[in-house]
Fold these 2 entries.
Entry 1:
Amino acid sequence: MNEKKKMSLAVQIFIALVFGIIVGIALTGHASVAETYIRPFGTIFLNLIKWIVTPLVFFSIMAGVISMRDIRKVGAIGVRTIVYYLCTTAFAITIGLVLANAFKGFFPVLQTTDLVYEAAEPVHFMDTLVGIFPSNFVDPFVKANMLQIIVASLIIGFAILLITPEQDSEFTMVTMLNDVFMKAMEMIVKLSPIGVFCLICPVVATNGPSVLGSLAKVLLVAYLGYILHAVIVYSFTVSTFAGMSPVTFFKNMIPAILFAFSSASSVGTLPINLECAEKLGADKDVSSFVLPLGATINMDGTAIYQGVCSIFIASCFGISLTFPQMLTIVLTATLASIGTAGVPGAGMVMLAMVLSSVGLPVEGIALVAGVDRIFDMGRTAVNITGDTSCAVIISAMERRRKSRK
Ligand code: ASP
């Protein structure tokens, strides 16, 4: 019964995606119809998701901390999660750079005169660090600042652990509220096929096949990188560290991958990703912490995209990057992907940081901006898959640790 239900959501989303693309193609040339009458329903759906995601993260992390019953255990899981995220991201950017260098000869050389791109003010690393800690209780919720919400929920979760006697560690108010928001999330997730249709259709109608034009080859290389990274890295990690067949992993990830693809938002995909992680057997207390953190700081797809675009932009300007410059890109793109918010288009903004770290002209972003959404759909799908692979692995490690005790 459960199996049937699981398949049906994946199939529904898939049909919605294909249908959305077909209707989108049919509406090319009449994009305003799709923008005016179809996109608003996608926006309603995304608004509901955005609305639910902050309380969901807040209560699920607290409930996770409480059920772990041990602050040290949360710390150990946190460290392992961050190490996994950093290593896979560094690997992703390396794949991006290697592929882009291999296929550089096929890239088009676009005109770079008259390029204008207004880069956002660069943020200093120390300011990013300070910005993780909230200075007002409600502000993180109002601004949906995920990292601040994570910090707040950890502190309060720890406080609850410290004041609650051991035997009474089911702190019912938090657990109850967590259940309520989980239920509300499930209700919203059921609407995802409609959401997917209404989100993808205007994107296809507006961009049309012609926009791909000269950038098709760069897009292809980025997508090749996304696929290779997912297939090689996640297959290897889930089978080695969690003993799970990669086929099982990817099959259960289909709803979240398709949703990420059409919404281009890791944070928006969080509710559906939590469900997929549960079906994959990840512990709730682990995934309620690992997935929101990943949706905010773990961006392997974004890193691949930044690698490919750096090489492409450099070649348009007739610049050849040296090996040390590429190492700098690996470092900055890993940091940039941590600073990238899990919302559409954020990765392109952070590309400015990567380009300027090796002295490439930031205006080059204008070369790829027109098709950013298409890059973004693929990179988001990879981003969230990486998060779930981590939840599956950490859960398996925790289970092994428990059984050794
Ligand atoms: N849209 C991506 C995400 O939400 C971030 C990016 O733009 O790279 O994961």
Note: The first helix runs from residue 2 to 26.
Entry 2:
Amino acid sequence: MSTLVMKFGGTSVGNAAAFLQVEEIISQQARDWDQVVAVVSAMSGVTDELTRGVVSAVSGDAETYHAVCNMLRERHTDIVNRLVRKADTRERLISAIDAQIDEYSSLCSSVHVLGEFTPRVMDSVVARGERLSARILAALLHQEGTRSEAVEATDLIVTDATFQNAVPIAQATRNRISARLVPLLAEGVLPVVAGFIAATQDGLTTTLGRGGSDYTAAIMGDALDADSVWIFTDVDGVMTADPRIVPDARVIPVISYTEVGELAYFGAKVLHPRTIRPVIERGIPLWVKNTFAPQTTGTRIVRNSTNTHGTVKAVTVINDLSMITVAGRGMIGVPGIAGRTFSAVARQGTSVLMISQSSSEQSICFVIPTTSAGAVVYTLEEEMASELARRDIDRIWAIDDIVIVTAIGAGMRGTPGISARIFGALGQAGINVIAIAQGSSECSISLAVDAAAAAAAVHQIHKEVIL
Ligand code: ADP
Ligand code: ASP
Ligand code: MG
């Protein structure tokens, strides 16, 4: 019995033509495999729009969410009108769209009145895009002759109550999948599961974090003991750089789980790393493929990097960052400054992307998202008030418009001279490196550079160190 799980991301169902393409891929694989499960994301941009509408509503804006409702209603209805031939199916889908959007609108109106929302409310707000795309896709498959049914992900994936970033409960989820999905598959039905969405034991809607549809696919693959999991997106696989920045980026044929994790952490969110772990641990073959070029091989993700080729495989960039510096001559030899600095930042709820301390101990620098910079400086000034008063610490400040450029590859471990080549490449282009850090896995080297030099830095590293 062969089982395939296929996941289609937002851009793979971004418009009518894309939906048709997805339908064709699924129908074709349905002929070759005994059992196929499709997982689908919301149409591209929909989760962002749902979020934008509710965030504007809570901050007192009574207009924006109405515009969002109109736009989302129109976008989904238009797809249905273009693609669905039978009038009764069309009507059924359009009333599902209306119901989801009307509910969204009243939730926005409530938070507008209340002036606040909780993560729990937020999950019930954003978990709509996937419901709609799953229904449309199932109807389309059915129309083209594949027996298919949209299955509520809230009936399949049981999580804890960490709203917005819920953690699946493995055994409970397995039980639900056995009870609900396995019988459908046995009847020859092809289930279409809404990605990203899940529910607590009590049935409250949760979500698996942004980009979480990959997680849904991995959970299905794991629970069904699938023979393969294919993640379809809008590029040819995991690439040597974001093709939107580097047009001549190439597909990486094989990459390890750790490397993909590092890639995602440092800005290339082509795959959600935490999420694919169940599949990797089980040794289920995992591929990233292009919806719009399904005949190309794509990228195979493997457990170990031993059988992958290349030293530096990819270069990534994270934008919109700030570098915080805590500096002062009196810091030398004062124990615990670094510890207190990072504890204070953690208490404030900000995660640090990169740390670098100069050997003279006169300063500590670290990089965080710019959105948190003001709050972090304030928290640190409070934490270090007495050191600042005594002038042991002279100043705590933020430099904005920073990016982190990272070179990634397991082969860097034990290959001397990689950093020299990276610095050489940047030097040639006159790019100033503000700070450096090497990942503890020795699988990456990160450089903080000025935002104005970001694209040039990525191009230089790609040209000199990867290609
Ligand atoms: P999906 O909607 O299919 O989940 P995502 O937007 O999450 O797609 O991820 C795919 C996008 O990731 C691509 O369109 C690409 O621009 C971007 N990306 C960034 N870095 C890389 C990389 N190194 N390899 C492939 N894609 C990358
Ligand atoms: N739609 C969700 C998001 O945009 C989940 C996903 O696409 O994987 O984050
Ligand atoms: Mg994604």
Note: The chain has a mean pLDDT of 94.
